[in-house]
């Protein structure tokens, strides 16, 4: 019983001593000075890193701007892709240095931590295979120039404009606004719709009652002036001739070579302008007609036949 009481008293004294030491540290001026100094150092490191990233990105943009004015140029799309990649690399490197510096400021053994990270890295090496594959695939995409920032591509079920090609992922923005983020390692097949010129295909219907020869002459004259009106048209559109003979119309086909990905807008513009041009020459574009007879009209027709 006496031993238990003595142990309890000893425990209480130890607890009291620990609490007193903690309180002393909390109210110790030197402790708060150290905390304040460390906090200021961390804030200064973060501020400097932010400035370095901004200045570095600005310097990279200026370098590429000067490079674009030299006699030997690289395409704007490829230039933007490489610029985005270098900006990503710069950001990752600065962040890595910041983390190491902050750990050193907190008196954490960075060397021991890195050694431990090496052991952990071996343990998770198999799990990081996808990450390595993504990075390697990203480099091949850029250096083989499979596609670049600003290109309109189709990757799997995703389709849209390439917003960014990073070390690990590619970002594609669809025309409806969705942003698709695709790991580079998952990119197996790419359809790039922005490398070569596009072809706009326009079908126009002419009524059977119209003079076909006159309609062709009007269309040919109309097509000759289109390259001057639309800078996205590469060469004079071609009237290929009669495509089909419909139930109530003769269908002509027109093709126009345009700059990459401009064929849809040009098709719409040509249809509108051609409708106006045909109306000027009183050339009819057929439309469905419905003739209705009442019983009285039918009886009248029968009586006339009789």
From TrEMBL:
Domain Mechanosensitive ion channel MscS: start-end pairs: 130-194
UniProt keyword annotations, A-Z: Cell membrane, Membrane, Transmembrane, Transmembrane helix
Stretches that traverse the bilayer: 40-60, 81-104, 110-132
One Pfam family cited in the UniProt record for this chain: MS_channel_3rd
Source species, domain of life: Bacteria
Cell compartment(s), UniProt: Cell membrane
GO MF annotation list: mechanosensitive monoatomic ion channel activity
UniProt-recorded name of the protein: Mechanosensitive ion channel protein MscS
